[in-house]
Each structure stands twice: as C-alpha cells, then as structure tokens.
Write a structure and sequence with these properties.
With about 950 residues, the chain is mainly beta. The chain has five domains: about 160 residues, Immunoglobulin-like (Sandwich), CATH 2.60.40; about 350 residues, Rossmann fold, CATH 3.40.50; about 90 residues, Sandwich (Immunoglobulin-like), CATH 2.60.40; about 80 residues, Immunoglobulins (Immunoglobulin-like, Sandwich); about 120 residues, Immunoglobulin-like, CATH 2.60.40. The chain is built from 13 helices and 67 strands. Strands 4, 6, 8, 10, 11, 12, 13, 15, 17, 19 and 20 form an eleven-stranded mixed beta sheet that branches. Strands 18-16-21-22-14-25 form a six-stranded mixed beta sheet. The longest helix is centred in the middle third of the chain and has 21 residues.
Length: about 950
C-alpha cells in the first residue's frame, strides 16, 4: 500500500481483448453511493452490482486461469490495448467529473483517450455516470502503477499494479528456434535442451516458420512485468499434424527484472498439404497472480513448411543436371543442389566428406528465410544416393546439434546403384585390355580413371562401406534401358569397328574388328530390367519396390510418338511424384536400406562376366589403390584441402588430364584449330595427320561431351571425320584423335579444344541455382550453371565463357569467380555475381558465413532511396501515422533480411507497429522488416515498398528520428 493512495478493487467483465476494471476512486469521506470505478468501454454497469461476471472463452489447457470479476491487478499485452471507462454511481455534478490517468512509467503502459491521441484526461458529462472511453496500452514488458487522479472536488485518487507482457519480447514473431547454430538453447556439448531460465531467457533465434521434420524444437517464452501463470495452446484445427506443446501450463519465475515462463513446441513429422505453406495458430494466455488478476491472451500464427531439400547429382554430372522441377526455390520451397562436379569421377572417399556440408547448406538456406529446421530431405541421383548413405552411416551424422538423430529426415534415391553396376565392371574389364581406346571412348561422358568407376563396380570394396542405413528411404527406379537404337548410346560405342588393313575409297581392305572384345562386352550385358546403366535389383537396394518409370539413367526428357522418354531426373512427372512422397507420411518409406552385399573382389554378380577369377584379377590390376583406375584417395583429398588449393584441385579434375593416356606427337589434329568457334547445328569437320611410322589403319575421334565418331582415309596418312553439332549443345568441345595400327594398338594425339556458341543473344538467361548461403570451410567453391532461352523455346547451356557469357562479382573480398563461372568463397561477406550474355542477366546471391558466427549487420542504406510523408493523427487508433516509400535504387538485388531502423526517437514517443528492438544497430532502436521480392530472399532492383509508421505520442512531442537500412542474418 503506497502512501496517498487507497486501492479498492478491480473487475474484469469482457472477453480476452476488452476488459472491465472496477476501481474505487472515491475519497475516504465519500459515501458508497458516490464512488467511481473503471469499467470496460461499452459495458452496462449497475450501481448495485460490483462483482459482475466476465465472459471468456475457456482454455482447453487444464488448470489454465480464466479470471474475471473483481480484480486486484491488471496486465495488458504489449502492442495491444484494453478499452476502459470511468464509472460513477451517481450522476456527475454540474460541469461534469474529470479524472486524469497516469501511468507511473509510460515506458511499460500508457493510458488515455485514443480519439485524442492518448490524451490522459477523461470526463463524465454532467448528469451522466460513464466517461468517454480510454485505453490502457501495452508499450513494453514491465510493471508499474496506474494512477487515477480526480480533478473534480469530492473525488479521491487510487492506484493499482499494472504491467505489460509479451511472448518473445521486442520481436515481431512469437517463436524462437531453440537450436540455431549461433545461439543454441542446448546444454553445452549435449543434445539436451537447457532448463536454466538464465540460459533460456537469452538463447534462440526468432523465426516465423518451422520445417515439418518432427524434430525441430521452438522455444516459447512469456515475459511479464508481474508474476503470474502462462498457458500455451494450439488453437487451430487441421486434419494434418500440427505439432505439440511440451508444457502447456507454467508459473512464471523471476529472471532479471522480469517474470518468465518457458515451454517448447515440437514440429509436426510431415507436411501433408498441397499448398505452399500451412499455418498453425498458438494462443498464449497470461494471468497475473497478485490477488485476482485478469486473464489476457495473444494469438500468433506459425508457418509450417516442407523441410529443405538437398539435391545430389551422380557420376560425371553437376548441379545443372537438376531442372527447375526439382531445383525450385521460392517463398515455400528451399532446395540446394550440392555440386561436387570437380571431383565427380573420384572415389567415394573423396566425395562423401562433402555431403555433410551440402546438407548443412540446405538447412542454412532454409534458416536464412527466417525458419527453423533440424533435418533436410535428400534426393540423390545415381552415385549421389550412395554418397548420402555413406554420410548417414558415418560417425559425423549423429551429433548434439541435430539432437543425435541426424540431419537427414528422408532419402529418395533415383536410379542409384546400391549394389553396384555391372557396367562399371565392364569398364574395368575393357580398361585391362584396351586402356587407351576405352578411356577416350568413355571420355565423351566422363573420366573413368579417378576412382568412382572402380567403387561403383559390383562387389567392390567401396560398397562394403554401405552398411544398414537408418533413415526413412525410398528407391525410385528406371527401366528404360538399354538405349533405343535411335539414340546414340553405349551400344554403338561398345560395338564400334575399326579397320586393321588399308582403306581404299572408303572401303576397308583387310580385317575389320571390334574396338572392344565382344566376349567381354557380351559377358557384362544386363540380364534383367535396367536403365541402361544400372540393373533394377541394384536400384532397389534391397528395399520394397518404389515407383518405377520406363526411363533411362540420364539424358534430356523428350516425347516420341506421344510417349515421354529420357533421363529420370529430367522427367517432370518423376519430380512431382518424388515431392509428393516427401510431403506425405512415412507409410510408403522403408525404415532404411540394408547393407550392400559386396565381397570386395570386384567381380560382377548380376551378369556372367568372363569368369570369377579373371574378373577379380582384372579388378585387382586396375582398381588397387594407386592403380590405373583408382588414384590414391588420400592424396586427392589432401590436394583439395590444402589452403588455397581447392580451386586448383577442382580445375585439374575437371580437365580430366591426370590419368589420361600419354600423348603421341605423331598424331596431330590439323583442323579445326584450337579456339575456333562453331554454331549449334553446324557440321564439324575434323582432319588428322598421322606420321607414317605409326602405320595407322584407322582413326577414332572423341568429342568430349558429344560422343565418338569414325573416320575415313583421305590419304595414306590422313583421316577425316565429320559430326553435326547437336542443336542443343553449346560450350567447349575437346577433340581427341586416336590412331589404330594393324596390330590393334592405339595412339592418342594432343587434344584440341574448340567452342560452340549460338552467335545470337538469348532472350533470357537463368542460373540453375542462384542462392548460396554457404560456409567457406564446408563449401569452398561452387560451379555456376547458366541456361539461355532462345526463340522457339530452345535452351542452350551458356555456362562457358566460350559462349559469350561473363561473370562479375560485386565483392571479390568475399567471393571471386572465374571466367567460366567457378565461384570461390574467400571470406565471410555478401556478394552478388552477375552472369550476363548478350545483354540478358541473372544473379547469384552469396551469403558467406560460418553458421555459428553469422555476419554482423551490414549498412546498406546507400542502396536505397527513402521518401517520407507528413504526420497525421488516426483517431480510430490514437496513433500518429506516417508513410515511407523504400526503393532499391541500385542495379543489383540486395540480399535479405533487411530492416529499416529508426534511431533517436524522442522520449515518450514509441513506434507501436515496430517489428522489434535492435540489439546491435544503435541498440534499443525500433526497426521494421523491409519486404522482399517474390523469391523471399532479395529486394529486387527498382523494387518499391511503402510502409506505414504508427507512433504513440501522448505528450505531443515533435517526432524526429534518423533512419538506416541494415542487412542482418539475425535481428539487427
């Protein structure tokens, strides 16, 4: 009881939004009939009844208070108001009865007449008993006293405890990721969430969405100026899983100067819906415990989103293999295509360590949009599925930072050779007897001598590392093989002939033999359904049969006679079906893949081969560590990990020159010459001169990326071949000529590289992936892939600078880029890489940071122009309003999240529609979130947004402030 004031009682008689406060303000010598009270605006108060009942919607949480009637304390949610009136029980005297409202600390609550901009005077007109309505407004978490001071003689004054409360104070969202990389709520070194209120009051990162991974935990933090009881309840209804609240009813406990209550929300286990996102509504209820306190509530929506998806390509491939049907990024989808193209022909042991970084990058990109996630889904094509399994089986998978359950929720494999591919065994066998011929024949697709082919062979030692994988898995399979006759493929390559005698007039005079021994080719032919690369049994990997499509292992998706054929990754239907599987329950998923049945001998088990002894001996000769087809993996990893060498290592591996057969200078391509430029659809004529000492009888020419062609004699030592460049091909073409003598020896000449460029500007260009939220230690480099669209819908790969594409980084201190689009992460920072061709442009956004140490706020005010209106009083809300138009005046997209910061507001002036209070940029300043473009990740060049600022200003102070725009990974 404070001197000078006599607190009588309070009462609450309305809903959780509007409240009745009955407060005696009668002087000590006044009669009971003349006393005055506070009541909810618009209510009917009878002088004979002071203990009116209130009407609240009861909470479903057992034991949650639902208090009304006569009150001893009152609390109001921050940024909400309680509408009140002063009521007396006898008519007001002549001139009326006037009262002044006073919050002893307006930093917490403010009181006044909204229609007058929160002027703190209320009047009961002469002969009336009810004043004009006024509002009690929550400004910030804290407690004070609300004083009602009578200015009319005959009435006394009164005071009662008043406080404001909030959930996740000073932030726009009510939800906190409990386990972000930068500010975890876990007990140090463990997977357990802390119960220490001092930890919980400072941990976590504000989020607006949560991945439906069934694992992620969100911290729910109620902070109040007064002690009380907090309740947490899911109040929305849905046929889909909405998650759960751990502790629905809690008493607050003192934490510093406030009173806090902490609970956790666990994300649903699956998405289920077909929409972009679906909301779940949580209601937070709070009741002060001082006497009979009033019950108030806050409702907030949380977006439930699909988990992020990591796409992982296979052998000889890159992230450009994923079309937009798979690699989609918008406000509701987050995908990240891991790219290990620089080492895509290398052993499992080289590439598996990269998978963790790719998964973490997918999660980081999802978090960068203001969401919480612990697990990602993975779609792995071919070898990408094996690498994912190896990571999931490794000691790095279960960690405290993923609650010891792993960071992969579900795995879908597409045509993955879980038990190996007999085609890889065939390549090993052919390399044993025709090393130069098979190297360059296969080089049209990729390098077979970097280790991956050895590891992918059936019964390889590397497959023994595929132990039982304990994540929900699904095998999607293809049965479109072998290659149709109208497509250039393996059959043509494996059955190619060469002339071992003279060629006269284009006719071989002498023996004509197959390049590759047909007993070996035939011994390794598929004996069951296949996709031309992998047999169906290996694709299934020992799990229940998943969706099967009559598609090939790779290749563009085309329609022939109304039927879709081509590669499984290129099919829109497969993409749609796979994402539907990931959205649904786990009912159609296997608990995991079993161990791969490998003996470690390297001989095939699904086909006859030559014989077990010969096949095993061939494998041992070619694939022993350091052998002709398997470089020492340790050396390869070391080279890539040396500081500053990652880029060089990837460039060397892309060149495919490490284990190439030696160059014989006696075989020389005389036309075309290096650097010549050709158009798609043009005929490429290749002429080769051979020294007489070679005794060449025939010539094979490989066009890397296109295929292998035969030749004809144009003279005793001259050969010529021709190839129409596919209309869909562009970029560099490396040409290799391999001469054959009468003893079937092969001599490869020096490669010559020419360029294929369309010669006309594309209508538009698009990067396969344009958002990179990456750690420089986990993802040190990333190859960009650019596609151009031309008239008629033709699309060409414009990644190479040979097609006229240029790349420019806006911040080379953070990210550099080569002329062919290989981005190297140098140091933490922001960078935008512009990829341009013929005036058409697209942009790659790079946010380079270590997850545990987010980038500090960056001032980007110079990239924007701001235009302000004047101030006006909105008499419906009582706030002074002003509009500000924010325009990106730069020529580049600006990565979000972005915040408009208002600093230096006068004392007593509050921005009531703020998104939060800054912690790092001019600490204690109000900020608003700046809208992004439709990609939900950037503010586009020229984009304009108008925001309305609402100020609480009961003292009529001149409203002044300074502004800035900051970019921050977390709140500024």
């Amino acid at each position: 009881m404070r001197p000078g004031f006599v607190r009588k009682f309070l009462a609450l008689t309305s809903t959780s939004v509007y409240f009745s406060l009955l407060v005696s303000v009668a002087p000590s010598n006044a009669s009971a009939q003349n006393r005055a009270v506070l009541a909810v605006a618009g209510s009917t108060v009878k002088a004979a009844s002071m203990d009116r009942a209130m009407s609240l919607t009861a909470s479903a949480v057992p034991g949650c208070p639902n208090q009304g009637g006569i009150l001893d304390s009152i609390s109001v949610p921050v940024n909400q108001s309680i509408n009140l009136e002063v009521v007396i029980f006898v008519p007001a005297p002549p001139g009326g009865a006037v009262f002044q409202l006073s919050s002893e600390n307006p930093a917490f609550v403010a009181a006044g007449d909204k229609t007058q901009g929160f002027l703190p005077i209320v009047t009961i007109p002469e002969g009336q008993t009810i004043s004009n309505p006024f509002a009690l407004f929550g400004v910030s978490v804290g407690s004070t006293f609300l004083d009602i001071i009578a200015l009319t003689p005959g009435f006394g004054s009164s005071s009662f405890p008043a406080g404001a409360w909030d959930v996740n104070p000073n932030q726009a969202s009510k939800f906190l990721d409990a386990n972000p990389p930068s500010n975890t709520c876990r007990v140090a070194g463990t997977a357990l969430l802390s119960t220490d209120p001092n930890v919980l009051s400072t941990c976590g990162v504000t989020v607006t969405g949560v991945a439906s991974d069934g694992v992620t935990q969100l911290l729910l933090e109620t902070s109040a100026g007064l002690q009380g009881t907090a309740c947490y309840e899911i109040t929305s209804t849905s046929s889909f899983d909405q998650g759960t609240v751990e502790l629905p009813l809690l008493s607050t406990q003192p934490v510093g100067k406030e009173n806090d209550a902490f609970s956790f929300y666990q994300a649903p286990a699956y998405y289920g819906d077909s929409s972009g996102s679906r909301p779940v509504t949580l209601t937070f209820t709070y009741t002060p415990s001082i006497g009979n306190g009033n019950t108030t509530s806050i409702t907030a929506n949380l977006n439930i989103l699909r988990p992020p998806v990591m796409l992982l390509h296979g052998l000889w491939s890159n992230l450009g293999a994923w079309p937009s049907n798979f690699n989609k990024n918008d406000a509701f989808h987050t995908t990240f295509a891991g790219d290990y193209s620089g080492t895509a022909a290398s052993s499992f042991s080289v590439n598996e360590p990269q998978v963790q970084g790719f998964v973490e990058t997918a999660l980081d990109q999802f978090r960068a949009n203001g969401n919480a996630a612990t697990q990602a889904d993975v779609i792995g094509h071919s070898m990408g599925g094996i690498l994912t399994r190896l990571y999931a089986d490794s000691g790095q998978f279960l960690r405290p930072d993923n609650y010891n359950v792993g960071d992969i929720r579900r795995l879908v494999t597409l045509d993955t050779p879980h038990w190996g591919s007999s085609l890889a065994n065939l390549l090993v066998s052919l390399h044993q007897v025709r090393a130069t011929a098979i190297y360059w024949a296969a080089r049209a697709a990729g390098d077979i001598t970097q280790g991956a082919v050895c590891d992918l062979a059936e019964n390889s030692p590397a497959l023994q590392g595929l132990t039982s994988t304990g994540i929900f898995s699904k095998a999607v399979t293809g049965t479109g093989g072998p290659f149709p006759n109208y497509l250039i493929g393996l059959e043509q390559l494996l059955t190619a002939n060469v002339c071992l005698g003279a060629t006269i007039g284009g006719v071989c005079v002498g023996a004509t033999v197959h390049v590759f021994p047909q007993d070996r080719v035939n011994g390794f032919r598929f004996s069951n359904l296949n996709d031309a690369i992998v047999g169906i049994v290996s694709q299934q990997g020992g799990v229940s049969t998943g969706p099967t499509y009559p598609l090939l292992h790779f290749g563009p998706y085309i329609s022939v006679f109304g039927f879709g054929i081509g590669g499984i990754v290129s099919s829109p239907q497969v993409a749609s079906d796979v994402f539907s599987l990931l959205d649904g329950t786990v009912g159609s998923f296997a608990a995991g893949f079993p161990s791969s049945p490998s003996t470690g001998l390297g001989n095939p088990f699904s086909v006859t081969g030559l014989n077990p002894g010969t096949d095993a001996a061939d494998y041992a000769a070619q694939c022993v560590a350091g052998g002709p087809m398997k470089p020492a993996a340790v050396a390869a990893i070391t080279e890539g990990e040396q500081p500053g060498n990652q880029l060089l290592a990837q460039q060397r591996r892309r060149s495919g020159a490490q284990n190439a057969p030696p160059v014989d200078p006696r075989v020389q391509i005389t036309s075309p010459t290096a650097g010549q430029v050709f158009a798609p659809g043009a005929t490429l004529t290749i002429q080769v001169q051979v020294d007489p000492s070679v005794n060449a009888t025939d010539m094979l020419i490989t066009l890397v990326g296109i295929g292998q062609i035969g030749t004809t004699n144009t003279g005793p030592t001259q050969f010529q071949g021709a190839q129409v460049i596919p209309g869909t091909f562009s970029g560099p073409v490396t040409i290799v000529a391999v001469a054959v003598d009468g003893n079937q020896n092969y001599f490869s000449g020096a490669p010559v590289t020419v360029s294929v460029s369309p010669g006309v500007a594309p209508q538009q260009v698009m990067l396969s992936q344009k958002y990179f939220y990456v750690s420089p230690t986990k993802v040190p480099s990333q190859q960009l892939h650019l596609t151009g669209t031309y008239s008629g819908g033709t699309q060409l790969d414009l990644t190479s600078s040979a097609t006229g594409t240029t790349y420019v980084s806006s911040n080379t201190a953070a990210v550099t880029v080569t002329v062919d689009g290989l981005a190297q992460m140098v140091a933490p920072g922001l960078a935008v890489i512009t990829a341009a061709n013929g005036g058409a442009k697209d942009y790659a956004i790079f946010v380079v940071q270590e997850p545990a140490t987010p980038l500090p706020p960056i001032d980007l005010t110079s990239s924007f122009t701001l235009k302000f209106s004047g101030f006006a009083l909105n008499r419906n809300t009582g706030f002074f309003v002003q509009s500000v138009t924010i325009t990106n005046s730069s020529n580049l997209p600006v990565p979000g999240p972005l915040y408009l910061v208002l600093s230096g507001l006068p004392s007593g002036v509050t921005l009531v529609n703020k998104s939060g209070i800054t912690q790092k940029v001019n600490p204690g300043s109000s900020f608003l979130t700046v809208p992004l473009s439709s990609d939900a990740r950037t503010n586009a060049p020229g984009q304009s947004n108008t925001l309305t600022l609402q100020f609480l200003n009961p003292n009529r102070t001149a409203i002044t402030y300074t502004t800035s725009i900051s970019r921050s990974s977390t709140a500024p």
